[in-house]
């Protein structure tokens, strides 16, 4: 079964505002997750600079032996990325769904402060559903 | 996977949850009325409405981008068209038109024929300086600021003040480049 290991959301200045892990693999403590987030933020920025083509919007997919990392950056600069089993499909679509959930349940929450860590229960609930639904779809194939 | 095609304002408007128009109009009316009571000065109310709109705009832009699948606009002209045709339709259910471009393409007018905020409103003599819909200009300013465009949005025509349409002037002040400050040693 294709599995999602973890999900990160980083704000436009590179701060980790949301982290959640979903499996036994790749579980990290708070310090490590912060490290991964800021590393990714910097690498993403550097990749834009190094790219031979103009108008490059940064790394979208990093493939390693033991995991894939899919990244989506919104036009406002917030980055969403999932770490998953190698070869997991439909991650771009999942990231889009997560972006929509973020706009609905985080940004519309009047008590959420912009750029701050996300602590919204409704977001958690809907996110879990979206990720499970995605697993079900993948299982059904 | 190819990026999803941009959706039309109509399609998004049909798919999002909506509230009763009257509830919306009356709620906005109640807010403006309360602000007038609290702040007393019409000028202060204009400022407060603009600030409230700005706070909405900086959050609303992400929903707009997420649901419309609009990608980066080539120039400010495209941006204005997208606001008028997709943005207004998606959030207010009305379409606007873009006119009065200046020569260098940094200033234009968005004209609204229909405005759901003002359905039952008549401005009394005591509130003549009030820009009743000033929240809208704030929303546009806030939303564009989040996609690195500093703008100035002002009302040119307002039916409540005796004009024949609602006209918002959007002026692009500067485009803030998205690059990171690489020269840390300076």
UniProtKB/TrEMBL annotation, chain A:
<dbReference type="GO" id="GO:0005783">
    <property type="term" value="C:endoplasmic reticulum"/>
</dbReference>
<keyword id="KW-0813">Transport</keyword>
<dbReference type="GO" id="GO:0005794">
    <property type="term" value="C:Golgi apparatus"/>
</dbReference>
<keyword id="KW-0256">Endoplasmic reticulum</keyword>
<protein>
    <recommendedName>
        <fullName>Trafficking protein particle complex subunit</fullName>
    </recommendedName>
</protein>
<dbReference type="InterPro" id="IPR007233">
    <property type="entry name" value="TRAPPC"/>
</dbReference>
<dbReference type="GO" id="GO:0006888">
    <property type="term" value="P:endoplasmic reticulum to Golgi vesicle-mediated transport"/>
</dbReference>
<comment type="subunit">
    <text>Part of the multisubunit transport protein particle (TRAPP) complex.</text>
</comment>
<keyword id="KW-0333">Golgi apparatus</keyword>
<dbReference type="InterPro" id="IPR011012">
    <property type="entry name" value="Longin-like_dom_sf"/>
</dbReference>
<keyword id="KW-0931">ER-Golgi transport</keyword>
<dbReference type="GO" id="GO:0030008">
    <property type="term" value="C:TRAPP complex"/>
</dbReference>
<comment type="similarity">
    <text>Belongs to the TRAPP small subunits family. TRAPPC4 subfamily.</text>
</comment>
<dbReference type="Pfam" id="PF04099">
    <property type="entry name" value="Sybindin"/>
</dbReference>
TrEMBL record, chain B:
<comment type="function">
    <text>May play a role in vesicular transport from endoplasmic reticulum to Golgi.</text>
</comment>
<dbReference type="GO" id="GO:0005783">
    <property type="term" value="C:endoplasmic reticulum"/>
</dbReference>
<keyword id="KW-0333">Golgi apparatus</keyword>
<dbReference type="GO" id="GO:0048193">
    <property type="term" value="P:Golgi vesicle transport"/>
</dbReference>
<keyword id="KW-0931">ER-Golgi transport</keyword>
<comment type="similarity">
    <text>Belongs to the TRAPP small subunits family. BET3 subfamily.</text>
</comment>
<dbReference type="Pfam" id="PF04051">
    <property type="entry name" value="TRAPP"/>
</dbReference>
<protein>
    <recommendedName>
        <fullName>Trafficking protein particle complex subunit</fullName>
    </recommendedName>
</protein>
<dbReference type="InterPro" id="IPR016721">
    <property type="entry name" value="Bet3"/>
</dbReference>
<comment type="subunit">
    <text>Homodimer.</text>
</comment>
<dbReference type="GO" id="GO:0030008">
    <property type="term" value="C:TRAPP complex"/>
</dbReference>
<dbReference type="InterPro" id="IPR007194">
    <property type="entry name" value="TRAPP_component"/>
</dbReference>
<keyword id="KW-0813">Transport</keyword>
<dbReference type="GO" id="GO:0005794">
    <property type="term" value="C:Golgi apparatus"/>
</dbReference>
<keyword id="KW-0256">Endoplasmic reticulum</keyword>
<dbReference type="InterPro" id="IPR024096">
    <property type="entry name" value="NO_sig/Golgi_transp_ligand-bd"/>
</dbReference>
């Amino acid at each position: 079964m294709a599995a999602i290991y973890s999900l990160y959301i980083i704000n436009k200045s590179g701060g980790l505002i949301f982290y959640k892990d979903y499996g036994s693999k790749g579980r990290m403590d708070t310090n490590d997750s912060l490290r991964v987030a800021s590393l990714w933020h910097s690498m993403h920025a550097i990749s834009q600079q190094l790219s031979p083509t103009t108008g490059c919007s940064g790394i979208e997919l990093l493939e390693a032996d033991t995991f894939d990392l899919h990244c989506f950056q919104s036009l406002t600069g917030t980055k969403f990325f999932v770490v998953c089993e190698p070869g997991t499909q439909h991650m771009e679509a999942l990231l889009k769904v997560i972006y929509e959930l973020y706009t609905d349940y985080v940004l519309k929450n009047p008590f959420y402060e912009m750029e701050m860590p996300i602590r919204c229960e409704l977001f958690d609930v809907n996110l879990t559903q979206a990720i499970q639904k995605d697993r079900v779809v993948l299982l059904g194939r | 996977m190819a990026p999803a095609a941009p959706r039309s304002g109509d399609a998004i408007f049909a798919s999002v949850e909506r509230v009763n128009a009257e509830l919306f109009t009356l709620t906005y009316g109640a807010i403006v009325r309360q602000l007038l009571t609290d702040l007393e000065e019409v000028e202060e109310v204009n400022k407060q409405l603009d600030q409230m709109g700005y706070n909405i705009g900086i959050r609303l832009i992400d929903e707009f981008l997420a649901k419309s699948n609009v990608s980066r606009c080539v120039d400010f002209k495209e941006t204005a068209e997208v606001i008028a045709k997709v943005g207004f339709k998606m959030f207010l259910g009305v379409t606007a038109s873009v006119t009065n471009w200046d020569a260098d393409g940094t200033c234009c007018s968005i004209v609204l024929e229909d405005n759901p905020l003002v359905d039952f409103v008549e401005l009394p003599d005591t509130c003549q300086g009030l820009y009743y819909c000033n929240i809208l200009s704030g929303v546009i300013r806030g939303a564009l600021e989040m996609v690195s465009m500093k703008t100035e949005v002002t009302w040119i025509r307002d039916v409540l003040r005796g004009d024949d349409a609602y006209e918002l002037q959007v002026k692009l002040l500067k485009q803030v480049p998205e690059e990171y400050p690489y020269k840390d040693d300076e």
